[in-house]
Amino acid sequence: MQFTRGLLALVILIAPALAPAEECEVELFVLGAGQDAGAPHIGYPDDPAWADPALGQTATSIAVVDHVAGERFLFEATPHVTRQLQLLDTLAPADGPGLGLDGVFLTHAHIGHYAGLMYFGREGAGADGIPVFVMPRFAAFLQGNGPWSQLVKLENIVIQPLAAETPVQASKGIHVTPLTVPHRDEFSETVGFVIVTNASKTLFLPDLDSWDEWAQASGIDLATRVVELDHLFVDATFFQDGELTGRDMSEIPHPRVKDTMERLSGLSPELRQKVRFIHYNHTNPIRFPASPESALVSARGFDVARAGDRLCLAP
């Protein structure tokens, strides 16, 4: 399988559509890799992306495309969904009119993961019956609260309830299984998704509180999951403690990138290279490819997901 590093965002957006790097039946595309609010970040005037937009980042989202069936599935509807669908159209154009989405899978009800649904309504795309796959509490939240309830009423979206650890067939070549994980669940459950093809299993897990809490709840630790899966896109919100000035980061539960790397340091290089860090905060230095922290991630045998990356899930 081949993991191809994406081009610079500006080049991607103006270039003609790119063919897959190899013959590939099911392909994953990284559309964004930042934390919910992206970068430059609101209330952060010193962010270098204000002066250089090329340093900006959009919130975390991936797409999985079944090239055989001509179907495209979006994972997370972010506040940057307009730009991200334009990127997807450049990398893997839709076969027909409209948004060309055959389903949207949402992990939880925090702004960076579902707020982009607002663009599917009559003020935006005026979408027609896009299936939106969510857990039961999340479904009730969307159905019972505006403006999301209007999307349901007008059938811009059609809610497809999920059940934990129960796979759904997205297309002939793709099955998706939600796994509940510990996180702030004010309005919905939080899940990661295992995306299964005939050749691979991929974990998409942008948000959780603690590897230990998840292992205790599920009975499976992170190292075991790395062994059992082929690719893992995991929470990299913070690189280490001390990133947020004036904040007690012990009160902000997310696995730190340094801790995750240390936990997996005993695994072989072949296993460590399965892990790709995603959902990094604007304060996390791995957002910059040339940073010492990004170099450290590579030196330890891991990778950092970047917008424009593509990964073949079924050759």
UniProtKB/TrEMBL annotation:
Keywords of this entry: Hydrolase, Signal
Molecular function as annotated in GO: hydrolase activity
Signal peptide range: 1-21
Pfam families named among the record's database cross-references: Lactamase_B_2
Nucleotide-binding keyword on record: no
Tagged with keyword Signal: yes
Segments forming domain Metallo-beta-lactamase: 72-270
Protein name (record): MBL fold metallo-hydrolase
Annotated source species: Marinihelvus fidelis
Origin organism lineage: Bacteria, Pseudomonadati, Pseudomonadota, Gammaproteobacteria, Chromatiales
